[in-house]
Amino acid sequence: MSLQTIRTSASLQDAAKAIVRRLQAIAAAQELSTATGDGIDLRSLLDRIVRPMAPTPDRVVVDGPDAVVSGTDATSFSLLLHELAANAIKHGAWASGNGLVQVTWAASASARRRSGRRSWPMTAN
User: Fold this and answer.
1) Residue-number span of the structural domain to which 50 is assigned
2) Which stretches of the chain score pLDDT less than 50?
3) Per DSSP, which regions of 10-112 are E strands?
């Protein structure tokens, strides 16, 4: 992860900032996972990882039923959310003056397991 970041960054200072932000995303997931024990509320994870990266609070919309990310998946999912938000800043909706990121999810339950579908639509106006 670090080598790829260094190779694709414009400067070592940019690379260092990117690496620190990724480590902060991992730390946030670990902190939330430790506090809850079983898993992490998806909304809480989005509030810790994505909302601080939004240019303004109104440029991210979060919508979905209560959902929990397992402790074993929390770190990977946190990095995924961080990367999606970073891409929104660099190339997507947050790169423009008033673009919006909307994070939505729906859960479906079956007799054997619980699965979900998530989406990350971005609009730039």
Assistant:
1) 2-123
2) 111-112, 125
3) 39-41, 60-63, 68-70, 100-109
